[in-house]
TrEMBL record, chain A:
Name of protein: ABC transporter permease
Species this chain originates from: Ensifer adhaerens
InterPro entries (UniProt xref): ABC_transp_permease
The organism's taxonomic lineage, starting at the top: Bacteria, Pseudomonadati, Pseudomonadota, Alphaproteobacteria, Hyphomicrobiales
Subcellular location: Cell membrane
Molecular function terms, GO-annotated: transmembrane transporter activity
UniProtKB/TrEMBL annotation, chain B:
Sequence intervals crossing the membrane: 12-36, 56-78, 90-107, 113-136, 148-167, 196-214, 280-310, 322-341
Protein name per the record: ABC transporter permease
Species assigned in the record: Ensifer adhaerens (Sinorhizobium morelense)
Species lineage: Bacteria, Pseudomonadati, Pseudomonadota, Alphaproteobacteria, Hyphomicrobiales
Membrane topology term: Multi-pass membrane protein
UniProt superkingdom: Bacteria
Keywords: Cell membrane, Membrane, Transmembrane, Transmembrane helix
């Protein structure tokens, strides 16, 4: 098949949307945290914990949706840990974030080994199955790509709409955005900046964990060590690329996923002339490139990474 | 709840805080040991015994501490100037690559010349690798945390490509590994027949040198000033961006030495499992040392001891050795809280 023809096949776009789904969840999660003024570098570890928690719930006999819920709760718990250290205590968001990633990852691996001491190959579960939407799914290419996915992918798109609606159309969203831009103004309204930020980080982290769980209970059917493989860091780049806007970040995630799906197919048709590692490097290199491209016009939330203390100016 | 600044405590009290952080870590992780159905006291005893209970254990701990001293120093230097280098893992691997490139026979030189030449080249390569993210930070405002993190993945894939391509050992039976470095490029063992090698001595010397640079030189002063308050530093005439570049060069060079020391002193060749995350663990080492270069030695030995001890423990008790990673990560978080409490008092209302 020709390298360009791939772009017009439905199966390619179905794969791209599937690859985008975990990124969409986690990018929305990080976006909420950062809009409230907190950089959450715990994302990589929280996704790992979510991937395990979701899978393990289903493996232990739970419902698939119970898996999603447990993952979200585990994520929120790590989010609260992160928020407690960075918001009221005002500790370095860089150091705490890396610490939360190390802790969530190591706790996950510890629990996995404790729960399944003798296992050599990871056990499989019955994951979410594709649920074609009648009518819409028969539209060529676009309909197939968007509407023959699993329920969790549909939820990813719903989460973008929900995040956008809450951020721009509700008082809570206004308070979150203001906490990231001008926290004293929030406090002047009698709203607690600490409360808003902690809530935002908890909810954002829950979304990150669901993104992780997508990998184990929708895209694949088991849990592997190192399966997040830098996706969390890529999501941080996607938030910047999307100028902290849910819609733009969604487009970024889909473009990125399309590129990722494309490199896998190029790898197959290149016939091994180019080492496969070159293709695997591309997503990471692309993320760095995207950061450089948008850096000049990036307008960070003004209070991002600046701790807030009541009564201080 | 609010934080109130308080006067800096005495040195003795300051030294108590890491101990308090470690004590808290032990209490928290003993919950996990209980969950695993073992007794915390006996497990921690086994860890301590496995880390320092015999000459073999102690030498193994010091061997494991060697790369951690290098990466810990790299992070301590960078974080002091608030340059968030999370890419020590990549810099370490590049150090390994350069060691293999120059040390497998390309340069037919006697040991006394060859080893210094390799070290300089290794440091240059690591420095250049971090210079990229540093330039992106100062010129374009791209956050170095994300770029250094992403570079870790890129460099590891690059190394994997080299090990299956140009650096592949023809006698390696298809295994992705490089050739062994020649005898002249090997760091000798400190004690005949044991694993501890001269890399440990180089690591100690580097710690002292870095301490001198940080405390006694203009560069060290500028780095601390930039980290403390970059606007203020600019105001008194410090070239902030240039200082950040120098910091990046020093930090990247130090991290790359970890790769050199592991290849040249311990493993002999480059493989994809050269480092089980020494670059990331270096962050914990540096924070436990409160970014003090001499403290890095002590905290690297401590962290190495946990890993070595936990390996030995998990063979005896039925507790997964990942408990070591949990302990190390927890101690990072308890330590940053402890450091905060040296400077602030928490007022509840």
């Amino acid at each position: 098949m020709d390298a360009l023809d791939i772009l017009f096949t439905a199966s390619f776009w179905v794969a791209a949307i599937r690859i985008a789904s975990p990124l969409i969840f986690a990018t929305m999660g990080e976006l909420i945290c950062e809009r409230a003024g907190v950089l959450n570098l715990g994302i990589e570890g929280i996704m790992t914990a979510g991937a395990f928690a979701g899978w393990f719930t289903v493996y232990s006999g739970g419902d698939l949706w119970a898996g999603v819920l447990v993952a979200a709760l585990v994520g929120a718990m790590f989010g609260l840990l992160h928020a407690t250290l960075t918001v009221p205590l005002g500790l370095s968001q860089h150091v705490v974030g890396i610490g939360v990633t190390l802790l969530a990852t190591s706790l996950t691996y510890f629990t996995y080994r404790l729960a399944l001491p003798e296992v050599t190959s990871p056990p499989k579960i019955e994951p979410f199955q594709p649920l074609p939407i009648p009518g819409l799914s028969s539209i060529p290419v676009v309909g197939e790509a968007l509407f023959t996915q699993t329920p969790l992918t549909y939820l990813a798109f719903v989460s973008v709409a929900a995040v956008a609606w809450i951020l721009y159309r509700t008082p809570v969203g206004l308070a979150v955005r203001a906490a990231g831009e001008n926290p004293s103004a929030v406090e002047a309204q009698g709203i607690s900046v600490t409360g808003i930020r902690m809530g935002a980080v908890a909810v954002g982290s829950a979304l990150m964990a669901v993104g992780g769980a997508f990998l184990t209970i929708s895209a694949f059917n088991s849990f592997f060590f190192q399966m997040i493989n830098g996706r969390g860091w890529i999501c941080i780049a996607l938030v910047v690329f999307g100028s902290w806007r849910p819609g733009k970040a969604l487009i970024g995630a889909i473009l990125f996923a399309a590129f990722d799906a494309y490199q896998v197919r190029l790898q197959q048709i290149s016939g091994g002339i180019v080492p496969y590692q070159v293709f695997l490097m591309m997503p990471y290199a692309l993320s760095i490139l995207a950061l450089i491209l948008v850096a000049r016009r990036a307008t960070y939330p003004k209070a991002l990474m600046i701790p807030y203390q009541k009564g201080e100016r | 709840m609010r934080l109130e600044p308080k006067p800096a405590p005495s040195l003795a009290v300051t030294l108590l805080f890491p101990l308090a952080a470690i004590a808290t870590t032990l209490m928290l992780t003993s919950l996990l040991v209980l969950a695993a159905g073992a007794s915390p006291l006996s497990v921690f005893y086994l860890v301590a015994k496995g880390a320092a209970g015999s000459q073999f254990a102690l030498l193994e701990t010091l061997t494991r501490a060697t790369p951690l001293i290098f990466t810990g120093l790299a992070i301590a230097v960078a974080f002091r100037a608030k340059l968030w280098n999370i890419g020590a893992e990549a810099q370490l691997y590049i150090g390994g690559v350069v060691t293999v490139l120059l040390g497998t026979g390309a340069l037919p030189l006697p040991s006394v010349i060859l080893i210094p030449v390799i070290m300089v080249a290794v440091m240059a390569a690591g420095a250049l690798l971090l210079l990229g993210p540093a330039v992106l930070k100062t010129r374009f405002g791209v956050d170095e945390v994300v770029t250094t993190l992403l570079l870790n993945f890129i460099v590891l894939l690059f190394v994997s490509m080299l090990l299956q391509g140009v650096l592949k050992d023809p006698m390696g039976l298809g295994w992705p590994q490089s050739q062994k470095v020649i005898a002249e490029a090997q760091l000798p063992r400190l004690i005949q027949g044991k694993r501890l090698h001269y890399g440990f001595v180089i690591a100690l010397a580097s710690a002292v040198l870095v301490w001198v640079v940080m405390k006694k030189t203009v560069l060290g002063y500028e780095m601390r000033a930039v980290g403390h308050n970059s606007e203020g530093a600019r105001f008194v005439g410090i070239l902030v961006n240039r200082t950040l570049m120098k910091t990046a060069l020093l930090s990247g060079g130090l991290a790359a030495l970890a790769g050199f020391s592991e290849v040249s002193g311990l493993k002999g060749n480059l493989t994809l499992d050269l480092s089980p995350g020494y670059g990331y663990t270096g962050i914990v080492v540096a924070m436990l040392a409160m970014l003090n270069p001499l403290g890095v030695i002590a905290s690297a030995v401590f962290v190495a001891g946990i890993f070595v001890g936990a390996d030995a423990m998990s063979r005896a008790a039925k507790v997964p050795s990942y408990i070591a990673d949990v302990m190390v990560a927890t101690s990072l978080l308890t330590m940053v809280v402890a450091i905060l409490l040296t400077r602030f008092r928490i007022r509840w209302r």
